[in-house]
Amino acid sequence: MKTLDEQIADIEKLDELRQRARALQQDAIEALTQKPYLPQPRRRKGEAAKEAWRNNSPRPNWAAPGDDVEKAELLQALTLLKPKEDENKKQWAKSREALITDLKDISYQDCIETEAALDTVPTFRCAQVLQALAKTPGQVLSEAALACFYCLAKELNEIASPAWAGGAGRASHDAIATAFVTGECVRGLLALELALQDTAKAAEMLGKEAARAAQFRSGIELWRGQEDYFRARSLKISLAMLRPRVIIDLSESDLAEGKAKEILDKIEQALRAIPEKLPGLRPAGFVTLPKEKEPSVAKPEDHLADILPYYFAGAAKSIASYALERLVYALRAPVNNTDLEAQGKATAEKLRHGARIVRDLLLPVEQFAEEITPSDILVGGVEGVERRTRHVFQALSKLTHAVILFDEFDSILLDRAKRDPEVIPRTVIEFLTPGMLPKLKALNEASKEQRISYVLATNFVDRLDGAVTRGGRFDDMHGIYPPDVLSRLGRMLDQVKRNKLKTKLENEIHEVTRNRDKETDATRRDELSEKLKHLNDDKKKQDTAQLLRVLMAVNDTKSGPMDKLGKPGSYTAPREPKDLDGTLFGYVLQNAKKKDVAPETEYDSAKQKEVERRDAKAKKEGKPSEPLTEPYWTDWEKIASWDHMFDGQLKRSAGGGASLWSEKAVPEWSVVSDFLKETMQKTAP
């Protein structure tokens, strides 16, 4: 293992390399922007446009091809980097404007063109253009971007020879599917998805800010000025981070002025301006296929390989057309909310819906990803187990910058000491553990150089072989426990505060307040004010009683399983009144009967089993038993001790044996603060 000084030297070397790479990038962008880039016109523009370009475009050391792929890659470079020199900045702006003007002029016919195009790789062209436009605010949902989206959707869903597999991309209709082109198609769709997701974040943030600006303003002029300044500054910083990937082009004035509602309206206007139909797109189906090869008129003697491509092409067109229709329909859906925060959420939701539609198109590609489980090791039969295991771990050790999760692998890493040495192993799995140890050791060594982290997830840590959990194979062991009392208390208080379901008393207070404010008769107004005073006194008592029930609910759910504690009505604020029936929130808000939550597991019983296991092992080996000093056990013991302390604190606050339901015994917030102080003192290092 390297010393700290050696590691620092490595970090300094890495930082030096990064600075050098950044300097090379800056040199490159300065070179690219020495003169403006004039995009080569497409052949459909005519010879006159081509001649004008030849007369104005010559540039030293700038050679062909000048096609749409080059334009898209250059626009991405100009989006990523900016020059420092003033003259270069002017050329940067001219080049970028010219590229955007050229690329957004791409039509569906340009997307599929091969003979009249500047290149012969239409799918690769579409992938690059979509990547460039999706990273250019204002062009994310242009006709050109949507045409490229349609072409990529069609390509990834078409099943073509010779592989006859879906999810692969070909550079052109006559090419063979390759991982490179497939990867570029995926990057194009992911760039579009990211733009929609980031715009959704911006819309939701803008809605909240617009609502806050409209409703909450300080009455003190000095404070109001400071409040407006900090709010505008905060919005500017947040939008500046999202600015490169939102669907609208945010100007510096938009960011400086911080007009949340105006920017939110711009996003909605951009969505409503999306074209409903793209010129040149025909309905999916077989209507455009050559008559002699339509499946409906195919002859018995026709070869199946001549007919199948047309079936698959028609299906791919249908999928792509449907995806485009769903995307446009989802994004153009009107938002009619008058509430600004609700408007922002509605706009964000339809943008996320659009992102999900884009993501769904990657399913044919994602099906190629494999998950390694014990069944993959056993798939080759008993005689091939060792060879298959070796190949799997060799492949894993070659990965870089990866996180590997071993799931359900505990079955082949079981403790050999628990097996009866007199009994002959009856399954091949029982032979695997000794062979797995050197492979895990080799993976551990490779991880240091390859930047690999690997994790074994198990519910049966006590069954794993001691050599497996030893350092050098798995270096550490961390438990994932039920939420501790501090987490449960904080979560419950937060969700009670966020809860929007009102009690009967709260609704009555709201109604009386509204009637009093509208009342013009002075006598009646005084009567309502007096009634409101009594109702508010009752509300204080209700809040105190609710606090007690919060503490009781937290205390009664120790070691509860997350699949129950995380449900609406438990430690998540309910959305509908029906979620109050028999739940913790029904108990907290309405003092209704709640269902008990059985502990998933308890520390004391688990500890007892582990101590007995270690004692038996130590007795068998003639050694002293090992104490439970691992973080897995010490952390769990701390969590269990917090639960015991909290339970005792509640009982002390109630006066020992006094009933917790006695009004005089209702604990105040001092219970919580005293508990926190005591906990911090006892658990301080």
Structure description:
This protein is 60% helix and 2% strand. A two-stranded parallel ribbon has the order 1-2. Among the domains are: 21-41 and 65-184, no CATH class; 188-291 and 319-366, no CATH class; 374-469, Rossmann fold, CATH 3.40.50. It has helices at 4-32, 47-56, 68-80, 86-103, 108-112, 122-134, 143-157, 179-215, 221-242, 252-257, 260-272, 304-332, 340-360, 363-366, 374-378, 385-397, 429-450, 466-469, 485-498, 504-518, 522-556, 562-565, 584-590, 603-621, 631-653, 670-683; strands at 402-407, 452-457. The chain has 685 residues and is mainly α. Mean pLDDT is 76; it is low at 283-305 and 656-669. It contains 26 helices and two strands.
Break the fold down into its secondary structure elements and pairings:
Layout: H1 4-32, H2 47-56, H3 68-80, H4 86-103, H5 108-112, H6 122-134, H7 143-157, H8 179-215, H9 221-242, H10 252-257, H11 260-272, H12 304-332, H13 340-360, H14 363-366, H15 374-378, H16 385-397, E1 402-407, H17 429-450, E2 452-457, H18 466-469, H19 485-498, H20 504-518, H21 522-556, H22 562-565, H23 584-590, H24 603-621, H25 631-653, H26 670-683
Parallel strand pairs: 1-2
Helix pairs in contact: 3-4, 3-6, 6-7, 6-8, 7-12, 8-9, 8-11, 8-13, 12-13, 16-17, 19-21, 20-21, 21-23, 25-26
